[in-house]
Amino acid sequence: MASVVVGAFPPWWLPTQLITGLLLVLLTACDLRHRRLPDVLTLGGCPLVLGALLLAAVLGAPTRLPLWGLVGAVVFGGSYAVVRLIAPCSLGAGDVKFAVLLGLAIGGVTPLLVPVVMLGAAVGTLVTAGFLRRRAVPHGPAMALSAWLVIGAPVF
Predict the structure, then answer these.
(1) In this protein, which residues make up the domain named Prepilin type IV endopeptidase peptidase (predicted)?
(2) Residues 102/147, Cβ–Cβ less than 8 Å
């Protein structure tokens, strides 16, 4: 919130940050505790993030923000859906739905960062698995952290 006051990023981005940030915390906690990403948060969060992007456009953001969000959702969610189809054991269906949600918010900054976030999530998951010496670890927390680095400190 302090960064809005000092002008580090435009105030119209704050609703997107708050909504996405809350969803990231809730989804990360669910994934760590239950190894599930509930539909009520992944699918239910998509209209909230899209609404925040539409609100940003009304409050003075570039009008392309919602469209870029949709492009990001298609790229992130579509890429994860393809991986899920090819190797179903590598990603859960919740990860695919979470990717759609994150793609909306990341795309609002720029869809060009979606592949960077995807790479960051993959590396984060691999490092966590290596550190914990486990073959399977939740992927959601790495997705959330990687995405938050873009959403929390956007460069427009």
Answers:
(1) 19-126
(2) yes
Residue 88, CA atoms < 13 Å, CB-side half-sphere: 1
57-77: average pLDDT = 97
15 in a domain, yes or no?
A: yes
- DSSP letter, residue 38: -
User: Region 86-101: what's the mean pLDDT?
Assistant: 96
**What are the residue ranges of helices labelled H in 35-113?**
39-58, 65-86, 93-109
**pTM, whole model, 2 decimals?**
0.93
Is residue 90 included in any domain, yes or no? Answer: yes
The predicted pLDDT at position 1 comes to 43
Instruction: Round to the nearest angstrom and report the end-to-end CA distance of the chain.
Output: 17
pLDDT at 6: 46
Domain count, the chain: 1
R_g over Cα of the chain: 15
